[in-house]
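Recap for those who missed Tuesday's class. We walked through two folding examples back to back. For each one, the amino acid string is listed first and its predicted structure tokens come directly after. Nothing is annotated here on purpose, so try labeling regions yourself before you check the end of the notes.
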Amino acid sequence: MKEYSIGQMSRQTGVKVTTIRYYESRGLIPSPARTEGGQRRYDEAALERLAFLRHSRELGFGLDDIADLMALAEAPSEDCAPAHEIARKQLAAVDPRMTILAQLREELVRMAHVEDPGHAGECRVIEVLGNHRLCMGTHDLSDASANLSDN
């Protein structure tokens, strides 16, 4: 049976070591066996769980939803409907965020393409960031992000 150190897990999945430890503390990855020196030794199943976690996080799923999805993945005879419901909920959270991100992009393009005289005191980017009324639209991500949080 192949074993992986936490550093190998990190390199293979692109997940930071600190994040792996956090996932372990949350019970999303089982606590691994340890060597006599106290080093973690993960198995192939843990590597697969971490890859599942990373992909789920890339799609914006919160940790509570990921835990539910992992539980379903480990119970192949269970009904798939809850997984679809979680995915639909995530999609509903992504749509308003995409609208706001499009507005953000427009504002950033507008700010970045203004020719300034070269002094920070007359810089359009600094001016707009200091006075939200100069923006063309609303682009507060806090409401949309609340739906994408770690639950």
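Example two. Treat it independently of the first, because the proteins are unrelated.
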Amino acid sequence: MDEGSGGGFVRTAVAARQRITRGMLGAVFNAVLPRGCAGCDMPDMVLCPSCEASFARPRCYALGGVEIGFGYACAAYRGAARQAVLAWKDHGDEECTPMFAQALAALALRVGIRESVRGREILIVPTPSSSRSVRRRGRWHMLPLVRRLARLLRESGVNARVAPVLTMRGVAHKSVEMRGSSQRAGRVGGHIVMRRGADVEGSLVMLVDDIVTTGSTMRQCVGVLGSGGAIVLTALALAQAGESQRNPDRQPAVRRGDGLPVDESCP
């Protein structure tokens, strides 16, 4: 977030204390009551095999401005997958980060990132969170995720590097709380910008988000990065909200009532 040096230092210190306190409380809690699966509460599991498998069922949707032509998600945003993502995102279950990163890495390889980059460096760009969201959670939840994702991709032969080049200004509400594509588009419209001094001209980019609703945030990010001269290959997310419509002809652009093209039959 772009903030004054004094205020930024104070907020950084507060966030650090919150992380330490949360970690201490979590350790005490787990010692008294061992954790359960983030998706279904099965004892002594971060993600049980069934819930982990729910993040290996890709969904895709048409996304203008990206080279591959589509954005992808690991899972549908419902049931155990929804509960697990919310436990990680809003309730501090950071133990899910390695497993979520593994799911994203598998999806990236499945959709052909390694073949698309052909040895060139690819920038892993997380979608931004508002300052208010970061303060409320005590962390920018996306950053540890994309760092681990980049490491996994490098281990798989993809020259990946994290580049948090986007920031969000003046946004007050969660996108998953907004109703309708016009409200969500209005929430992020014009609020996503490049960080000062960021340079992506000529760079290959893969966007990463936690939850895709109407795709408004992804489209805004693609537009900003494209304006900066980046070549955005695709966008990945942990989960995609909304009911899916499967097209028997495997055409990805099936339009729902709110205009979001979705299809579980990823090409």
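Answers for example two:
The beta strands are 59-62, 70-76, 122-126, 160-162, 166-168, 192-194, 204-212, 231-240, 254-255, 261-262.
The longest helix spans residues 5-32.
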